[in-house]
Design goal:
This protein is α+β, with helices and mostly antiparallel strands and 175 residues long. The protein has a single domain, classed as Protein kinase-like fold (Alpha-Beta Barrel), CATH 3.20.200.10. 30% of the residues lie in helices and 18% in strands. It is built from four helices and nine strands; from the N terminus they run H-E-E-E-E-E-H-E-E-E-E-H-H. The N and C termini lie far apart (48 Å). The C terminus is likely disordered.
């Protein structure tokens, strides 16, 4: 599951990087490094994940706190661009997916998590932290990089997940 989440987020990040290359003066973008699943049949624990050595201690850029709030750690260029990437993914997926936790060394990012209201996304049996989607829309502070990408100011919206056709109808009680 971790591999699917990190590698899917990596694909979004590649698209984001391609779009930012067309924007003058945007500069470097974070790169989510690949996470590989390996099979070790002779080991007591036959499956493990491996990734590139980042060469230093990880810094937290965007994290989910214990109280469930999403927080950016600082105002460095990499943190601001991680926040812009979050905004871009949220907008690009119509409010259905958000890359939440991100940490790394320099521009190399790892340990990403997602929030989604899409049941079955990446094989998840249920939606994953959907309250973070609403919280992000309500609390995200656009920065300089959001502006030069032309991202829209977020307003709390209800994500477009699948709902029962009867949702929203008045229920009638019979006696």
């Amino acid at each position: 599951q971790e591999c699917k989440i990190q590698n899917s987020s990596r694909e979004y990040c590649k698209i984001f990087a391609a779009e930012t290359r067309a924007v003058p003066d945007f500069g470097a973008v974070p790169e989510i490094i690949p996470l590989y699943l390996i099979y070790r049949p002779a080991n007591n624990i036959p499956y493990a994940t491996v990734e590139e050595d980042l060469g230093g201690p990880c810094e937290q850029y965007c994290v989910t706190e214990r109280d469930g709030s999403l927080v950016a750690r600082g105002t460095s260029e990499v943190v601001l661009k991680c926040c812009t990437f979050q905004h871009w993914v949220y907008q690009w997926t119509n409010g259905n997916i958000l890359v939440t936790d991100m940490e790394g060394v320099g521009w190399k990012v790892t340990n990403v998590r997602i929030a989604t209201n899409l049941k079955g996304y990446l094989g998840l049996k249920e939606s994953c932290f959907p309250s973070l989607l609403e919280q992000f829309a309500a609390t995200h502070q656009c920065n300089h990089y959001c502006a030069i990408l032309g991202l829209k100011t977020l307003e709390p919206v209800k994500p477009k997940g699948s709902k029962s056709p009867s949702t929203g109808r008045k229920s009638t009680q019979s006696s």
